[in-house]
Design a protein that fits this description.
Layout (H helix, E strand, L loop, with lengths): L1 H28 L5 H33 L8 H25 L5 H19 L1 H10 L18 H6 L6 H20 L11 H15 L25
């Protein structure tokens, strides 16, 4: 299933680039064509856009199939792919509109599509979405790749303590404790040059969760030395 999805996305990306390059190139070559020739070119371009949209829908449906198998684990990359396909579909629709109306306006639409993609993936908060999605499984797969998630995922990981049980919850707690130790002892993370809102929110969420008794500070690994007195009073 993984190879099936990857192949579909690769085909989509290649065909999309070739289709757009061909349409824009033909527009430039035919800019002095007669009205009848322009109409025929627009019809052919529309057919190419329609075929590319079919491939786009196929690639998106492959993602849907992949996400419904029993052993699916959500990742940030897959969220990026889904968002990219949606934005690419919008760009193809804009290409269709400019084919018949205003050819010179395609560039601004492409720029808006790129900005929309960047804004969307930031608003979605992929790591938090991945953590919340996977923890709902409440099995071994829920926490398999949780260590790869950034600080953006910490609030969602803490919320997952209320929905996980057994060994899944135990591994989950171990991961949160490890993140706590890392934040406390990583001196580079405490200098102002390294400040980030995500890290600040993650630390605040860990402090509140610890105060609420959701996890205890047991040493997560034997190679981590920790002394309570070493932590500044404002961080305790």
């Amino acid at each position: 299933f993984r190879e099936y999805v990857r192949r579909g996305f690769g085909e989509l990306l290649l065909v999309a680039l070739l289709t757009m390059a061909l349409i824009i190139g033909l527009r430039r070559v035919m800019r002095r064509a007669t009205e009848g020739q322009q109409r025929k070119l627009n019809l052919l371009n529309t057919a190419m856009i329609a075929l590319a949209m079919v491939l786009l829908v196929s690639a998106f449906m492959r993602m849907v199939v992949w996400e419904n198998i029993a052993f699916y684990i959500n990742t940030a990359t897959r969220l990026y792919v889904r968002t990219f396909i949606v934005c690419l579909g919008a760009l193809f629709m804009w290409l269709f509109i400019t084919t018949w109306l205003r050819r010179d306006r395609f560039a601004i639409g492409a720029f808006v599509a790129v900005i929309a993609f960047l804004v969307s993936v930031n608003l979605i908060n992929p790591d938090a979405d991945v953590a919340a999605y996977n923890l709902r499984r409440n099995d071994e797969l829920s926490v398999r790749f949780v260590y790869l998630l950034s600080d953006d995922a910490v609030p969602a990981l803490i919320s997952g303590l209320d929905t996980t049980t057994g060994s899944c919850q135990a591994q989950h707690v171990t991961e949160l404790v490890q993140r706590w130790y890392t934040m406390v002892h990583d001196a580079r993370a405490r200098v102002w040059q390294s400040f980030s809102v995500s890290r600040w929110d993650a630390y605040d969420a860990l402090v509140q969760a610890r105060s609420a008794g959701k996890f205890a500070l047991n040493r997560p690994r034997s190679d981590v030395s920790y002394v309570e007195e070493d932590v500044p009073s404002e961080r305790r």
